[in-house]
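Hey team,

Filing this mostly as a record. A colleague (T.K.) asked me to run one chain through the structure pipeline before their review meeting, and I want the input and output archived in the tracker in case anyone asks later how it was produced. No errors, nothing strange. Just documentation.

Input sequence:
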Amino acid sequence: MKIIIVGSGTSAWMSAAALAKTFPEYDITIIKGGDPIGVGESTTPHINQYLKYMGIDDVTFLREARATYKSSSRFVDFSEFGEVFHYPNGQIPEGNYGEWMLAKAYGQEVPPFADTYMPFVTIAEEGKLPLDHPFIPNYELGKDRSFHMDGGAFSTYLEKTFCENVKVINSEVKSVSYNDKGVAFVTTERGDTDLRAPRVEADLFIDCTGQRSMLGGAQSSWIDFDTILTDTALVVKTEYTDRDKEMVPYTNAQARSAGWEWTIPTWDFISRGYVYSSKHQDADSAFEEFGQKNVTEIHFRNGRYEEAWVGNCVKIGLSYGFIEPLESTSLFNTHHGILALMDILSEEPGINQFARDRFNNNLAEHMVGWKEFVEAHYYYSRRNDTAFWRDATSQKYDLKDTDHDYIQYHMTGGDPSYSFEVKPILYILAGSGYTIVGKRRYEYFDVQPVPDARIRELNEGYQTRKELASSLPTMYKYLKDTVFS
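Output structure:
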């Protein structure tokens, strides 16, 4: 099979590497026009699926992607001013979540929700790297983490390690021609000796051109995620001034007047960005609030195409869809699509409509689920101090048949017994200051408060972990000694 990949960013090289590894007999070409922005990216723990598939271990990835560990996403001022909560990256453990809810309803002092059920969060909040330790249950560094990475460095590694037999055309795609099978051919820039623009044909085209969606965008209708209000990002790389303090094991998300600001510490630099709504703040005010120099401005739209695979063209990553950068879903969407494509091409003797339908249903369900997760950060917020936050918390989100239904059931009259099902969304709900069932209902059903001995146990464990943090290394020291020595 002859495959053409169009794009120069992380999604293009991740696609090329996976295809070259899985199908060494394929004729694979990447048309690489232009350079990606490459300001540093944050991943989710699901990146492990791609790394395991490619046979890339942690040390190799950290070195080659100039990466650092990420244990959680930290949200500041999202629920209310002065409030901080974490969404942890570990595998969600079984636990008596209702115990914490009950204690909070009765006004008993307990550690933050994430610290209670994902104890490694306490270490991260102290600015230290969580390590495997008896005082930190439900945690393994080799599994319960994700990364902050330099996408450009990772792409270079993939190219040199897996793509030896991948042909590279250093040219922009100038035009796309279609027929009844999909993309008939693309033309590239005409060289000095070309009489006409070179024509490139293939059996399968992979569109990794970002939100331009140069190949596949004309083949499918766009579905807008209009409940997500942010549409512009200001991004910049900054240098470290104190690596021990600034190289923290979490992505920091600081709420601002018309959006939020990220801080992503890679090994070589800090990536900073201000994601905001241009309907609620003009560019001059946004630049002033961000307060950074040498900034790149990026406009984006939230949504997806109705179909990711049409005819002989597959849209991967941003060319298929995008949800604003909150919770780092972009790379997840990318490698999820890549691995789904590898599965289907490995199973099917040829390209048929059943293969396309499976792929399209998979990616659509995946994207919608993560849209709802991102929306929850705004849905549960108590902010109403600016026009943006008033609008963000007033959206009528379509939350039917989601985890929100389960939460609403319990909040509006469900069983007041407090053995709740494990739901990742509870970390956002509780972090935003809510309990599932209020004190009035607990008292009506004669549910007793959490015993004082148990409250002491939870708080003593929390204090023990804070004390333990003082003896653990910073992430900079740990990586310097074990990976970048």
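Quick notes for T.K.: The radius of gyration is 24 Å. The first helix runs from residue 10 to 22.
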